[in-house]
Amino acid sequence: MLRDKNLVPLSRQHQHALALCVRIERSSPIEETKRILWQTEIAQQFEAEIKVHFAAEEKVVFPAACSFDGLRPLVDDLLREHAFLRSCFEKAESRQMRAEEITEFARRLSEHIRKEERQLFERLQQLLRAEEMRRIGRELDHALETASQSCTLPTPRQ
Fold first, then answer.
1. Containing H/E element for 108?
2. pLDDT tens column, 38-58
3. Which of 48, 60, 64, 104 reaches 20 to 30 Å from 143, CA-CA?
4. CATH code at 30?
């Protein structure tokens, strides 16, 4: 299903995070010499975009979804995943992730994004009326103002 224009900003940010996941997956197993660099990039992406993204979903999208009884269990799962992913970002920020945790983080983040896109967003587009989607779009625009809208790539060390 074509993504509703009001959810496109979140989907665009999902693409940025998925790009990071793909790069980690392609680099796996993570070399010990690259572990700190990966953690730096993960922490940068969280600060630049994902922290604000999670907050916007939790403030705008998840409450709208919870108005439908059938979506509450999905939202509960997504909130638990946000908590787990936040703990990963904290570990990356403090450079405490082991190499295998970086790979696991990428797998879990990718699965989380796909669940939001394929399950939550698809169902919301089916269930919400056009004016409600427009309201969500306006609220998301406001909530995402402070997030970077570009894919941050690490600068190589010289």
1. helix 99-115
2. 999 999 999 999 999 999 999
3. 104
4. 1.20.120.520
